[in-house]
Design goal:
The chain is mostly helical. The chain is 59% helix and 8% strand. It is built from seven helices and four strands. The two termini are 27 Å apart. 17% of the residues are buried.
């Protein structure tokens, strides 16, 4: 299992995500970000063990890249409240802070959707059919994702992954 725990490790994780060489094939380095494609199709049991950690890393790398620069990111992370009120920044704190940012944005976008559309429009836009019955979306995350999609807005946690062969 891969471990990244400190500020320097996070910056290494970001480098490994896009240009890492922890795994090589025929002398070519495979970035961590491509491990899903590599393992899922060729080593599904190994992927099952790596999937949870890889997904967490993907979220953190996306969060890191969503800031203008590393300084802005570290400022946001160091200002985030902790139970010990310390300035120690670790991966758990980073993950919790990014989740908080995601939750705030999702809640705001749900409120924006409710203000923007009347009841009839909202029901039509934020629903799906299940066994021929119209069901209104109830999860904040799903409503926010659909709202952003309709408005052409993109946030890193909305990225849909496809398993299509390239």
């Amino acid at each position: 299992m891969l471990t990244y725990k400190t500020k320097g490790d996070l910056e290494q994780l970001v480098r490994d995500w896009t240009s890492g060489t922890l795994i090589t094939m025929d002398g070519l380095g495979i970035p961590l970000g491509l491990w899903k494609k590599l393992y899922k199709g060729t080593r599904p049991r190994a992927w099952t063990r790596l999937k949870d950690q890889w997904t967490k890393f993907k979220f953190i790398v996306g969060g890191f890249k969503s800031f203008e620069n590393a300084e802005e990111f570290w400022t946001a992370m160091s200002l985030a409240p902790t139970t010990l009120e310390s300035k120690i920044v670790n991966f758990k704190k980073i993950s919790n802070t990014l989740r908080g940012i995601r939750n705030e944005r999702d809640n705001q976008d749900v409120e924006n959707a409710k203000r923007k559309y009347n009841d009839e429009e909202y029901e039509a836009l934020f629903s799906y059919k299940k066994r021929g019955k119209l069901c209104i979306l109830t999860k904040v995350q799903d409503i926010a994702r659909r709202y952003r999609g309709r408005n052409g807005e993109v946030v890193y946690w909305d990225e849909e992954e496809t398993d299509e062969e390239e």
